[in-house]
Amino acid sequence: MNSSSKFYGTKIPVVRMLVVMKNLFTIRAFHKSLISLSSSTRHFCCSSSSSASTFAIKNVTKSNFESALNDLRLYVKDADFVAVDLEMTGVTSAPWRESFELDRFDIQYLKVKDSAEKFAAVQFGVCPFRWEPHRQSFVAHPHNFYIFPRQEIKGDDTSYEFLCQTTSINFLAKYQFDFNLCIREGVSYLSRSQEKEALGRLNARYKDRLLDSSSCWREGVDTKLVRVADILFSERLKNKIAEWHDGLLGDRNGASQTWKTSNDSKQQLKTIFFKMRPALDLTGFTSHQLRLIQLVVKNHFEDLVYACVAGESSSQQLIVYADSASDRDLLMKELKDCLCKEAEMKIKAAIGFRHVIDLLSSEKKLIVGHNSFLDIAHIYRKFIGPLPSTAKECVISIQKFFPYIVDTKVLLNASTVCQKILKKSSTSLSKAFALLCPQIASGVKTSGLADKRLVKVEVQVDNKRSLNWNSGAKHEAGYDAFMTGCVFAQACSHLGVDFTLNPSSVDLSHHEKLQEYINLLYLSWINGDIIDLKTGERKTDSICSKGFKAHHSKILFSNTVLLWGFPAKLKASEIRECFCKVFGSSSITFIYHLDKTAVFIQFSKEELVSDFLVLKETLERSNDPISVLHPLSKVLQGGRTRAASYEVYKQICSSTISKVFFADQAEAVGIEWNAKLSKPVLEVERQVDFEASENQLDTDARNETEIVSGIDPPLYMHSPTDELDSLCPAEAQMSK
Amino acid sequence: MLLQRRLLCTQVPKRSIHPTHHQNSNLNNKKWAIKQVTKSNFAETLEEIKTHIFNSDFIAVSLQKTGAFSSPWQKVLPFDTAEVAYLKAKYAAERFQVLQFAVCPFSVKSSKIIAHPYNFHLFPRDELKMGMPSYSFFCQSSYLTAMAQEGFDFNACIYDGISYLSRAQELAAKDRTGNPLPRSYMKPSQSPTVYSVADSMFVDRIKSRIKIWKRTCQDSEKKTEDDLISTLRKIVSGGEVFGSRPSLSIDICSERQVQLILETLQEFTDLVPLLVPAKKELQLMEEEHNMQVRGFREVVDLISTSQKPVVAHNAINEFAFIHSKFIAPLPSTVDEFRSSLCSVFSHIVDVNHLMREIGPLNKVNNLPAAILYLKRRFTRPLHMEIPQHIDGDEVRVHGRDVLRISELFAKLCLILRIVPESPEADYSTSSSTLECYANVFNPCFISSSDLLDDDVNISTEKTRRISVANLVFLWGFRGMMSARKLKSLLKGSHEVFSGEIDVRLADRNCAIVVFWAPGFAERFLKVMNSGGTNCEPIKDMISEGLRAACYRTYKRVCELSIWEPSLADALEKALEEASDLPEANSEEELPAICWDNDELTNLDDL
């Protein structure tokens, strides 16, 4: 057997390698993508330990929600802090909605908002941590809630919908997420605003009915008796009810009960008492028959009321006797209240998982997350209400519900001690966990001295306890929350919070050592932009950019033009060439791909923006040979090339539509482009910490962007960056 | 009467313990013996279904999606023209995903249906890492919950569902596979590669070979030399030319070696590795590649090439999905859609339209109910025979609608005499009759009664044709109102309502009014536009927020994709947009629809 066929059999392709000489850029590009790939694989290397004791994490579904919630109330009440984490069905609704370095602060928020609005949260990890002084360790209670946006109460006519990003679903599948359990058994929920709306609808409905009590139970009961069978049935029932009715009266007058029913109707009509009144319980009728009976009662018996009352399992159909008009009104009111209360109960029952959020909010505990702005936005959207339109309004509102939030990603990047331990490597959750808490992550006992500095965490699930528990699965919300909490506890210790000194627990929310980190979140990790939840402003004197790599780009939004719809195969380098021919070789600072249909072009001077837009318009209007031969015609070819200022980008991002390609999106949003071109640009520039002079960044930026066009771009492509890897979006996004 | 009942009573419990019952349930299971297909058994099934598709007369299809319409007015309504219905179907098809695709090739022989049902589990996995076939998709939680109740296994579907690419996507993929280096090679191993002795020898050998070749390349660029010498040099160094650039071929025989070379090449900053498969394997690889790329679309292509009539229920919805997922993005008009679809499937038959032929059935829009109805009315027996054998006794109900469609179609064909009943006559003679029923996408089918048998009672009195010019949308009335209340309110308000009108609710806040007398709709709109001058009741209602729009506005709502949850909001937006534009093509001819008094969703019942 020759080697080639053998290898074919084992699915190893027989190949020849061609080594081709090419220009320098391409090779660099190749290297660059390799680097970003390696950073995306960071979460794969986490060791599992054999010595760790194994009992499963507490999974909570519909069936055990009530009891778990009751236990959780106690744990949260006693807790020093509560770590949370969410798993979602996706992160970006379109490739161009991913985070770019070129995103201004307000646009970063719009992208998070879009994500939180479209995708569903399917798993919610809650892990309360409590310091136990006599054990000198933390006790953690990791909970893994499966949640699913099931529609439990009838709302308005809109259906419950959510988006799934294919790569994210695959990512969840890779980590053995149980979709069946989630969909079948997941706990549903109702946000505060949904609850309010539902109660409002309920009130409106019952108020309406008060005005019009005759049509109280069911509108449109005037089913006409057309079929002979219906007439016969109605007649028979009328007689039956009349018999019963007369019997009641006779009974009251002291006469013996005369109402006798035949065997079969006795099963269907049973005398009971309803709210101290005699009533007939109707069972075994079809809904059509019930409608007929309703009609009979309405038309022929003044002192009988047809009522539909919800029983324990199913609803009960009754004919109730009311002996006077006032009693009848009283009965109606009672029934109405009864129905109203019942509907209210249903709404209360539908709150479901939100009880956990309400608990966290009412206890005002310190909430710990890892790169958690998106998580918090999801919590807000799912359990509080629609997200406000600006970041400022949003975070100020968040603070009302969660006054103390701390983010381990911010903490790790800001603290020099932690940076030293992490050796400036990535601050992804599992990496940080493995490096900061080796005793938990791998169960390795380190030498006595080093061990002393490690915070002990004991895990309790139901009645089982363990000091070296590690049997969660990565990217399972409950386990991720546990890891986040451990990392936080350890980071606190490195920052000088001494848990052992205090006889009782430490007030972490107000601890002086933590004050400069509390209520700061990365709005966008890629830009290193931090938002201060108290003020809603971008944190400029950032403590946290210390650990953050310096940006080599100064982004002048007013110098930036958005260009899309150009010929499909046009590369950034070619576009640059065209522009340089027209505006001079140093006119372009950089060109940045949003996706294959759109680029950002930053000019060196602000006036070039309007120059270009005017020139574009004149070129498009005239069709003479000069404009055809114009260098820009290569870009404008096809007549679908559009350009706009940076503000239009914001408009496009704030739309609820999400087309896969930016050019399609812009068309769908459908703004009258040419009308907006001359509009003045509002924000001047974004402040980033600069280390490089503009000249340097010029070349750097050029390399970075043109590199992208050097290799054949994937279908959804944007510039590679060090932190986020565009080739494997899901992994990059899910691993924080 | 009594006796009968008692008999039944005693028989029922007896039956359940009787052994025959067991057989019965087996038979029932047998009835739903639908082969469930996932990635693991797809290849073998493909061969199997191929023969069945080519040997059967018809192919029934039915899809299970992640959602259908987001609010009541967005589903295809009886007053929708073909254009509007298509736009609605398009919107749904672009948003939602198909998770199950049931295919059932079947033949009707005398009173037997021979069916081969398959249910394919699909998931739009990105096999090529190119963001295809679908970047994201919507789910309606009610749809997922309903599927879960049927015992659908979402894990299996996501882990093991078959992926696919549409024809258009495959072309795009071919266009983009410019770099033949599979991405998997580009991922460096997590830890630095540990070299064995053999490895390092291999690496050293390759390294020196590359160095020599590079040197010769650079040397030869400098000086011009004799042709013969340069040729000889090439043979010695193994240099070739790839495009206009010098290249070097290295034969390798394992993935390990590919990895090693890639790592070695990192030292050379001016070299690009390319993987070129040896010629022998090319063809085999291509076949496998095609299978991987097209995935489930192979089945769709088989159905297409077989040219067999395809039977579906609510065809416009189903085929909007099929077109957008397996053929190409949906075109913007129904005519383009129809012609594009016809080039792929020559005959598409909608059982819904066939059902409309039999008057009273047009209300029955649900498959089991329709079958039950036909069973009662037309007692010709029909047996379903499923020859395929399926191992295991798990529930195989998924995709059973496709069997119902086959059964219903066969029954309807018998009743409508579309298919010859004699077993020897083959399908071709009947095709001309079927032609009349094929490829009709109007939500409202106009019955062609000449095709019908006399002994079938058709009552089409209830449906009346009416031009959409006589339809007016009304919204902004106070609170929740029933159609009846609204009608009586309108009746007293203006003389245009004195004629025959119909009022129905399209959704909770928007009503549609039919003016049976021509011209009255226009008159009413004029009154509305004038703000109700000379008519106090209308004026009052307008001041309370009453608004009206013609059918064209409704069409615009769909054309502009203003898919607001409430139709009233959508119409309002469309009116706003329209006010910016000059009054154009008002002379366009308006199509007619069939108005069925009974068919509209009666929201009073909600």
UniProtKB/TrEMBL annotation, chain A:
Cofactor entry: a divalent metal cation
Coiled coil: none
InterPro entries: CAF1_poly(A)_ribonucleases, RNase_CAF1, RNaseH-like_sf, RNaseH_sf
Top-level taxon of origin: Eukaryota
MF terms in GO: 3'-5'-RNA exonuclease activity; RNA binding
A Pfam family matched in the record: CAF1
Family: Belongs to the CAF1 family.
Entry protein name: Poly(A)-specific ribonuclease PARN isoform X1
Native source species: Coffea arabica
Gene expressing this chain: LOC113688180
TrEMBL record, chain B:
Transmembrane segments: none
SUPFAM superfamilies, A to Z: Ribonuclease H-like (SSF53098)
Cofactor dependence: a divalent metal cation
GO molecular function: 3'-5'-RNA exonuclease activity; RNA binding
Entry-linked InterPro entries: CAF1_poly(A)_ribonucleases, RNase_CAF1, RNaseH-like_sf, RNaseH_sf
Pfam families xref list: CAF1 (PF04857)
Coiled-coil spans in chain: none
Span of the signal peptide: none
PANTHER family, alphabetized: POLY A -SPECIFIC RIBONUCLEASE/TARGET OF EGR1, MEMBER 1, POLY(A)-SPECIFIC RIBONUCLEASE PARN-LIKE
Family membership noted in the UniProt record: Belongs to the CAF1 family.
Protein name, entry field: Poly(A)-specific ribonuclease PARN-like isoform X2
Organism: Coffea arabica
Species classification: Eukaryota, Viridiplantae, Streptophyta, Embryophyta, Tracheophyta
